[in-house]
Each structure stands twice: as structure tokens, then as C-alpha cells.
Task: structure prediction
Amino acid sequence: MRIPLWIAWKELQGRKSRFILNISLVALAVGLCISMELISRSREQAVDSRINYMGPALRVVPEGVTEGMLTRYQMSGKKFQASFLSRIKRKTASTIYAIEGRLIFKIKYKEWPVALIGYDRKNIITPFKELKKLKSGEGAMGYELSKELKLKAGDTLRYGDTKIYIKTVLPTTGTNEDTALFVTLNSARDILNAGDVLNEIRIYPGTGVSTEKIAGEIAALFNSINVIKAPRNDITESGVETALSSYRLILYSFTSLVAILTLMIGSHINAVERKNELATLYAIGTTGSTVFLTLISRAFLVGVPGSLAGYLIGAVSALLFDFNSAAGLVWSWELLAVTAVVTVTATIVSTVPASIMAGFRNHVLYLQEDY
Result:
């Protein structure tokens, strides 16, 4: 294989302009597909993030707590150790987008039952930036609860010896969280005088990951829990995924077909133009197989730099389109490897017909025609 590669390299050095033209063709086709793939992935991630704001796909609660009880924040004093969250995170690390733990309970304020939600501000999935900035001793009150208790931002809610400064009133979300008071997880534990405990773990699967699979993995870890699946994740698993990917397959197929046909024409023209050169190689002792492999090697030397240049073009295009969404996606060893393998394979396949014709034809006859 070394001799065909050396001959192909020398030929490309002598025809630099055609070499660059072929690489550019491959790079443009690859760049179009890669930019579309990266932009689509960033859009999928953005859509998935917006869906996640509606609520988690899975909720893990203590055994005996039902979905209805959780909706009404009636946890019946049941809790589990916070170490449950770490074990779930280790088990599902490759399939989840995010995971957060909460401690939910009710207190009495002027004879009104108030649901307190202690949350981890570092890991909470929320559209409200205020919740990520909340400090110990501060609270963020739901819109409906604020109206009911006639409290506003800047007021103080007193519960026994505990004072909770109402830092902000959250906009309405149209969910039961409008009737809750959010405090940091440590504040909730202090108020409840509880240790390192939780009573709700929220799990957000990655794009396209089956919630049934994750629920089964979690259920196998513990006996004293209940896993509640939210139906809204069906959107993420089927509708959104299908809608965002179906048109890409058509685009990739059409682009690949055009590129392969163009390369086939180019390789045929190249083989015809070099018929005397290849026949001379055969006349001085080179076999037909070596001639065939020389043309295949030429395709390989075009495909490798073409795939790399195309990936770079696609990555830059995706960053220019939406830098914030694409920044974390542009460098993927997996996507780069798949791109290189598919591109090199396509360039070689497009060259095979012309290579067979040039490698195993009657070279002596071609030489005789010129004399």
C-alpha cells in the first residue's frame, strides 16, 4: 500500500490546483452537513431546556407518597437520606441532563398552611434567576401565596423563632408552585430541625433518553421509594426529537448524493486524462491492482483533509449562527470521528468505478493508440 500512496501523493503535488479544488468540494459538502447537525443539536438542547422548565420528567419520593400528595405538598413527614441523590446521580450520570434534591413541608402562618420548598440553588432548573441568588434566611414567594397572605417583597414571614425575609415575589407559572414559598435547602433543614435529608429528587433526562429506562434503573437501587413519571416528557422523547431530525436525514442524503456524483465525474475525468501515465506505470512493471490502489489512495488523500476542513467550516458556521447554544457542542470527538470515517468512505466509494476501469483495462492498447 505504501507504493500506491507515494504515487498518489506525487500526482497530487503536481496538480495542486485540482487537489485543492477536490478538497474544497468535499469540505463544503461536509461543512453544510456539520453546520446543520450542530445547529440542530443546539436547537434540540434549547427546546429541551424550555420543556424542562415545565417540570421534571421523573420525581423520586419516599414510599407511600403519591403524585396527588406531592401536588398538594402533603409529604406526611416522610423523608430519605440525601445520599440517595448521590447514588442515583452515579447510576444515571450518562443519561441525565440534570438532577436536584428538595425538602418539602408545611408550616402554619396566621392559621394559614404554607408549603415551604427547600431547594439546591446550584442545581435547580428554573426560568427565575432570583432563585439562584437567594441566600440563607431569604425566601421567594409564589404569586398566589403572596396574594393570599398579603405579603410582598421586603416583608418578613415569622414562624416561631424563624424569620424569613421575602426577597422577591415570583411571576405566576400557572402551577402549584404559585402557592409555595421557596427557601434554600439549608434554610429548610434549619427550620425543620432536620439533618441531611430530602423528600423529593427531580430528574431531567437527556434529549431522547427514555424515562422508562431511567425509572427502572432507579427502582432497582432502592426498595423504599416511589418513582413518579410526568407525561410531559413524551414530547421530548418522540415529537420534538422526530420533528427536529427527520428533515436532516433528507438534507444529508441529498448533499451526500450530489457530492458523490460530482466526485465520480471528477475521478473519471482524472482517470481518462492520466490514461497514458497509468499505462506507462503498467508497462514498467506495475500491476493493475497497484494502479487501482493508486487511484483509491488519491481519494483517501482528498477525503481526510476534506473531512477535517469541512468539520471546521461547520463548527464556525454553527458558532456564528448561535454562539451561546453551540459553544458547548462544537467540539465532539465522536462526531469528528464519524465525519472522517463517513467522508473518507464516500470519497473512496465514488472513485471505485473509475479506479476499476483504469486499473484493469488493456494498458498496452492505450499505449499503441498513441504510436
Notes: DSSP finds 14 helices and eleven strands in the chain. Residues 233-238 have pLDDT under 50 and may be disordered. The longest strand covers residues 96-109. The two ends are 32 Å apart (CA to CA).
